[in-house]
Amino acid sequence: MDTRPEPGLVKWSANPNHDTFLHLNILHRVVSLYEPSSTGENTRFPFKQVSKHEEIPPLNTYDWSPTVPGLVAIGTNSGVVNLLRVDDGSNAYLELMPRFHRHCQAVAFSTQAKLAVGLDRVRNDQCLYVWDVNRLSGLDPAVPGFPSDASLDQPALRLEPSVSVSSIKFFEDNPNTLVVGIKAQGLRIHDLRDPSGAVINFQTKCNNNLAIDYANQNYFASSPLDQPTVMIWDRRAGSRTDVRTDSAVQVRAYVEAADAGDVPWGSVLQLNGILHTLDTSRPDKSSFVRSLRYCRDHAGMLGILSRTGQLKVVKATAEFAASEYERCTGPELLRVRKSHEMDPTYLDPSRKNKDDIVSFDWATLSSPALRPRMVILRASGKFELMEKPVFTAHHTSAMIPWTVPHRGLEGNANDLGNRQYHSLVRLEQPHHTDMLGPLLVENVLAGGMVFGGENRKLMKRAVRSAMTPQESRVDLIMDSMAGKATLPGSFAESPAVAEKLRALRTHSLTANATTITLPTSTGSDYHRVHAHLHESLRAMSLSTNRNGPPSSREVHENLVEVTMNPAGLPKEAQCVVDHTKYLRAQEMYLFDYNANKKIASEDPWLQNLWEWLAGKLSIDLADIAPPPPFDTLHMLVPTNGLPDCPPMREGAESAAVDGGMISHPLVLDYLGVYNIWANDLGRKSSCRLYDSNAADPDAAMWERCLGQVAKKQRLPRFEGTPTKWPHHRQVCLAMCQWGHASVEEADDQLSASERLFAAHTRATAQALFRGDAEGAIQILKTASSEHPELLFVSLALQLIKRGDLDMAKQQLDFDERVASKTDPYLRAISSLIATGDWATIVDQDALPLRDRVFVAVRYFGDDQLGNWLKEQVSLAVDKGDVDGVVLTGVSDRLVDIFSKYVEKFGDYQTATLVLSICSPRYIDDHRCKAWRNAYRAYLQRNRAFYSRAKFEVESTKKSKRDGQPIIKPPFRQIALRCIYCDAEVALHGQHAMGPMGPMGINQSNPLMGTSISAGISCWSCGRHLPRCVVCLEVIGIPRSERLEVAADHETRLAGRFPTFCLKCEHVLHLDHAREWFARHVECPVPECRCRCNFRANPELNYH
Question: What biological-process terms (Gene Ontology) are attached (predicted)?
């Protein structure tokens, strides 16, 4: 045997019941026995040392007994063979002496306790010794060393005189047969039982590195020393006479190839050029085969290791497939089916020699179902376990379409927005498991528990579980963009989509920034959530405003964008994000505004939108602070009288009940602050006038009409800044408060542990906005027990209440520039104390828009208010800010806002529902119709038929004007018609029966009238109902099979009903349809390509 590198050699036990491997360290002359742990993956290969044998002689060759786990044979340069006991740490050994000293070049154990020793050539002696070591097969693991009578004096057989034996291997299916490599002559197969000593000869120079395919022992491989060639042989080619008389197709093909000189006789596959031969980074320019190893669990799988560290796996199969009923007894040609480079970096110029593979062996596994693994030894002395790539990956890839299935996904693969999309063909049960069974098993077995008896039992149970048909589909595609983080428990436990989105948002914020817990939002704690999100997003540095709190719009955009891109989320989370509109529709996200608040509760801004529309029907005017007079220095001092605006709990919907927003000739339903102040009825103004032909009313008429509305709504008079339009301001202030809970109600919903700093500052600020200075002071006094820093603000407000504005600024040192940069309400209070200017409050975009509008309407002059409102409407339209509903109401301006909002977030569902309140009754815009059609199509293709029908019915009712709906009701979608003449069955009986029958049908058939009356035949054309495309029997008549004896009750019922495909119009019995579409998607008619059972999003459980 040629010289070996320092790290030595590695060999796995041939016994599958012993998961151990040997390491022979040639430099230190130590044999170590290792045991791997339960896992067997590329990246993890833990093992432990069981024992070791020290001070072994310098070895030239070796072998490990397949039947005695602790017996190893070492061949030396002197010809002496040492038998080592390696499993007990005793360092015991026996010596087998040849007659003449010469190199021992090969040793091999058989499964029947025989040891063959191949020696170098010498005159007057045989060179193949066969020893009987049966007495060593009973070694007791508990007794160290060898027994006293274990000495072996003479070999049982001596063969092959005066030749050089270079390699030996025993066949395991016949332990008395072995193949021997003879230097410069060829290969010989000996049967030790043959007294005549007859052998089978194959002439070749490939007489080294013999390896037998133990999974199909007709084949064995060998290689020469001077060429990078591997030859595979077939032992059935021994007798040429018998082979040439064999009539099998495979044998005749082999004989023709051998006679033509394509292969030497006995060889069935010659691998030339399979190894890399040139490597400029090494002094040795040629590559020779170092070792050959066949995998014991997979037939034809050969591992080849070269001196350059190249490790290649070749899978060889028969060139001609044998018939199922024909068994070939002669040699068969082989072909290479697959080959794999196990370490493709062996030619890397930057690779160091210590990373070369110097030895390997296949791991003996318990089942061929497991993916083949091999243990390798690198020049650095490191062990690794490699897995051969699995063929089922190619099997499954054949089911993946190579073209992009729909538009919008073409482009650069590195672009997340344009990444190409491939998925497996959707197979129905039970074919799903049958077709994808190999891949299902591989997913269970890959890198799993492969070593250890108990782990093998678990593995078998896992395989059986994977192959058991499941009700739900198994996603077999690995999404490289999906995250592997564990989702919070609240995600799986929450049935509502809002709770799931809130859990995902918390998960994303926690993973990307810091630990942030978003509070549960309800209808009354919108501002508390808003303030908390301010602080959270500021801590994450998501805000673009570094001089103060982020604007309300920025907080909303950053909040929604957390779940806008599902990349990085686990698959179950991506499903929720991708189908939010569908899940909301399933929860009846429609025209019940109070229900919509709960369904969209994860987004406080959408909650605010629905609150403005819905509100509450109860109005409590008690405990209302009176309004202050307009005075720069005493603007917070309350006066007697009615307040200028109570904390209204109405909404736009409840305000419009019983004509509450109608004053002849104006219909002001669902209008906003800007519409009221600007006297704007929208582009379709005639629809908001009782007399559509009347001219638009002037400003004076608007003021009179709004005065009537204020009386209907029981609104208090406006007393504040001087104005020409007090009734305008009355109604505008009421609109700002629509859906707003009172401060007391909001505070009552906070427990003692939930009284956050932001909640107190919010309540204080809103009290100041209403003019309730005393209430604001009391709130701060109460909060100062938990937050002492608020006592300072309370003192300042008390000084201002007494009129000492300058003292509050000078002695308490209030400055707008040092106002709070985290809490928008505390910043507003501080700015007001420091400047006394309400404009500073209005310009703080961190505050919710309705609070800023409330302050502007209350304190701005007429011209200033008009300009500011116009500017804010333009900004809301430009940014798509849904808070702008308080300005625009449900009008044409809101369509412009939603246009940008849909462009940003894609939520055309909310836009459609909100605008359907007034479109097309008061709004005539093509975008509303486009969003409506898109939403209807979305529900239809996701099979949300009930939700789609409910939406159409309710939106049609919303479009009524003067009792008549503007949207035309959808046509009747269910009717019984003849598929031949399209006559409607409901019209039967309206036509007179003449002598020729209905429509002139010939009544020569006496059963025609009966079949028409029974509904089996058409009353118009006389054709009977179509046939079931599965059983080909006419629908509606008694079936040939007896359904009453069916075991399944549902089958007995379903067999009486037909079912139609609305696309291809083919008909089936209902029980036949269930059976067919449980396995298939396409129509049963062969020439029809209709995908009757197509499901756009199978991850959504439609049933």
Answer: positive regulation of TORC1 signaling
